[in-house]
Amino acid sequence: MSYWATGVSVITAQGDDGPAGATANALTSLSLEPPLALVCFDVSSRTLHAVRQSERFCINVLSVGQEPVSRLFATKKSQEEKFEGAAHRLERGAPVLEGCLAWLVCALDSEVQRGDHVVAVGRVLAGGIDENAAPLLFYRAEYVTLAPTIAR
Questions:
Q1: How far apart (Å, rounded) are the C-alpha atoms in residues 44 and 116?
Q2: Tens of pLDDT, residues 35-86
Q3: Which of 30, 76, 120, 125, CA to CA, is 20 to 30 A from 36?
Q4: DSSP code of residue 134
Q5: From 2.30.110.10, 2.40.160.60, 1.10.238.10, 3.10.20.90, which CATH number describes the 13-133 domain?
Q6: What is the distance between the alpha carbons of residues 22 and 73, in angstroms, rounded to a whole number?
Q7: Virtual CA dihedral for 61, 38, 71, 56, nearest 10 degrees?
Q8: Rounded (5°) CA angle 94-98-101
Q9: How far apart are the first and last CA of the chain?
Q10: Taking CA 94 as the corner, what is the angle to CA 128 and CA 113, rounded to the nearest 5 degrees?
């Protein structure tokens, strides 16, 4: 699967103990009518726990220049340490990271466990984009970007 180029995102949620987040690339649009998105969490994910508590999550699609954010949220650091290093605001009950290419706040619609992951389906409540930003991509275990002529 390392040959499948993907976008990079951070999934965030506001749990009882504060914000939580994790880097993810296992996500997709599921339906346009109604608007649904699908994300996958490791069953032991602290972010999944926060999603279940709040029944909300945000898909933060990272832009070029946010590789440090991706790396930070991919660590096992405490959630407090992660969010100290990432400016954010609450939208519809979920943390939205500043500087993203796009963001979608979703209400948890359903979930199913398969193997060591949970597939969570979210009903899109709100979102936003930065039309001037370019995406951060991941391919063969490396961060990459689109050529400038393709990025816009």
A1: 8
A2: 999 999 999 999 999 999 999 999 999 999 999 999 999 999 999 999 998 9
A3: 76
A4: -
A5: 2.30.110.10
A6: 5
A7: 80
A8: 100
A9: 26
A10: 105
